[in-house]
Amino acid sequence: MMKQIAAAVLFVLLLANPADLSSCGPFFPTAIFTGQYAPDNERAFYSGQLGIVQRTYARRYLAMAYRTLSGEPLMPAQVDAITDLERRYRTSDANGVVKTWLAARQQAPGATAVTSIDWYRRTTTFSEIAVCTTDAFATATNVLAEYVRRYGKDATETKNWLNAQDEVFANCGGKTGEIPEPTPAGSDEFVVSDREYQIAAANFYAGNYDAARAEWSKIAADTNSRWQVWAPYLIARSYLRESNYEPAVQQLRQMLVDPREASLHRPAGLLLDRALAKLDPSAQLVNLSRRLMEPDPAELGHDLSDFTFIWDQSSSGSGEDYRPGMTQDQRQALFNARLARFRSAVSQSDLSAWVAGYSSKFPMKPDEALTRWQTTKSIAWLLAAAPSPEVETALRAVPADSPAYASARSNLAVMLSNENKNGEAAHVLDEAMQHRFDLSSMNEFHAERMKVAESFEVFLAHAPREAAKIGTGDEEPQDVDEPEYLFDNDAASAFNESLPLSSWLRAARARALVSNLKANIAQAGWVRSVLIAKDVQPFADVLAAVKPEYAAQLGTFAKQSAAERQFAEIFWMLHHPELGTDVRADLPRITKDGLIDVFRDNWWCAHGQNPWGSPQPQRVASVHFLNAEQRHELAAETTGLNDAGPAPVFLSKKCVEWVQAHPQDARNAEALALAVKTSRLVQCNGGDSTEVERAFRLLHNKYPNSDWTKKTPYWFK
């Protein structure tokens, strides 16, 4: 069984950017059959096994797909550079670093008790920044250990340094202004230089940037200070922290040509990129696009991260658009100007232009992708090009060993099916599925093949899908514990809207179909048969075999008269809210059979209606293989389901009819009460509430002293 992942709220805090508070739940586990935002296996994808490149993929994946498609595949070390950086972002144990510092300082004799440090500062109602980075706590831990080794843990120097460091970190949260005093005259030179650094750091965290720069400038001129080499870098950071980008850029560029700063050239270069991203994001986007295509980029992971950061900030809005005192018109003008610069920058880079055009986030002119492909003969642009006879011919020619093969086959099949060339589309898909791709791509191929199925047997062969991941709200999708076949929305929709019950029964009896899907079909088929007064026994036989816990009750029904059987089935339905009329897509109902689901995943809605009254999605408009008799059967069943209505209406009506005809039945009050309550326990509106009201009034008028009546003081529209 698949792992059921608990609902959670993800709180992402990266560097010193505003915190992102994810939306609240509840979140339910969901089967992901085709990854919309990320490939199944990042390393395989970055290594050239692209599968079907989804147009909805995150930009970092599209950028590296373009590089691969352009003949610049990533080497193993480059794949490491990307995945390692992403893994650090996802798994960084920032709180663990702080706890390590707290544990280390507590070992010093006489240290004051400090159990936590507030290292974030709220900037607006909805965001906060990390004032003190994890590097600061890691450095403090190492320096404390050094003092213990040099002076001893009981030494005055150690205690004084620790007290000063506590003052430094006091400025991390909402409290500011705790600045350590200079060391007494005659102190050890080593201690003096460390205290000067602590004073500068305290001012920096407190937001006293001019004072911090003045202190670091003195340190930069002190050849005896062990912090001298760091001082220019920290000056640049102080400019960045106050959003003063031009002097930060100038400072960092000076560092990069200074051989004395060679040990910090790499972090200075990374910080320079961040400063340029703020100073002129459009120009930096062009620069990063160029670097991402270099044969051996020095900082590929970093460049890719910055590329996506700039893209997000430029295309969807920035915190700078919401400065205090700005009017809405001023904010909109700032955004429009930045968006115009961004669009211009995108057009200057083939990589960026492809990412934008392929993802359809910034629609191109109708023939732009085609023109670029005709000009460059780039297979990347071929995949982005709109359908045409020329494109179709080129897609057919993509070889099986090309990283574009899966995408080309998928594009070609869709193109052909849209032209009603289903036979050709089927041939293309069958050929593609002779190769093994990632699970998401295979599921996509199965979905397309099911749409052009020439027979029910072929449809059924491609309807089941194996979940690639399990998603829960805003959390990163998780791998599946054990493979299990389910129906995606397209297959479930085809069953529910486009196939008669005779086809359902064939599916439920099919040897090739796994038992959980047989149960899914047979259970809904049994309910539909009850609703439209069709022979239920064929589905009951299958259901008893695949769900043994139902067997005894279903066997009892078979021995009853027609009238007794119908009410017995209704009464059983009232106690089994898992019984619905639709084949279920995705994961099974999370609540056990026989129990009410607190989020109202109970019984059924009106035919063709999804939870909360939304229209039924139609990913499969029709099936192509039904004969005239089957279509007539489907039409009659659809009319019957429409007449039956949603669960509250149908169940209330049937209970009222039974009670009026059998007033002495001991089950009557219970049945009426449960029927009334269904109206507030389903995920959609109950339709016409007349039947529910009739059941309520009959309950109270005929059985006023029943405990079931007392438990049912209201009826629900």
Discrete helix count: 33
What's the average pLDDT? 89
Instruction: Tell me the major beta sheet.
Output: 2 strands, antiparallel
Low-confidence stretches: 1-23, 612-618
Shape field: globular
In what order do the strands lie side by side in the largest sheet? 1-2
Beta content comes to under 5%
- Oligomeric state of the chains in view: single chain
Secondary structure class reads mainly alpha
Determine Rg (CA atoms, Å).
33 Å
List the helices and strands and how they pair.
Layout: E1 11-12, E2 20-21, E3 29-32, H1 42-46, H2 59-69, H3 76-91, H4 94-106, E4 120-124, E5 127-130, H5 134-151, H6 156-170, H7 189-206, H8 209-221, H9 231-241, H10 245-256, H11 265-279, H12 281-292, H13 300-316, H14 328-347, H15 350-359, H16 368-376, H17 379-384, H18 389-396, H19 405-418, H20 422-432, H21 439-451, H22 456-462, E6 464-466, E7 469-472, E8 485-487, H23 489-498, H24 501-509, H25 515-531, H26 537-546, H27 548-558, H28 562-574, H29 628-644, H30 647-661, H31 668-678, H32 690-702, H33 707-710
Antiparallel strand pairs: 1-2, 3-7, 4-5, 6-8
Helix pairs in contact: 2-15, 3-13, 4-5, 5-6, 6-7, 7-8, 8-9, 9-10, 10-11, 11-12, 12-13, 12-14, 13-14, 19-20, 19-21, 20-21, 21-22, 24-25, 25-26, 26-27, 28-30, 30-31, 30-32, 31-32
How would you describe what is shown here?
With 717 residues, the chain is mainly α. It has 33 helices and eight strands. A two-stranded antiparallel sheet has the order 1-2. A two-stranded antiparallel sheet has the order 3-7. A hairpin with a 2-residue loop joins strand 4 and strand 5 (127-130).
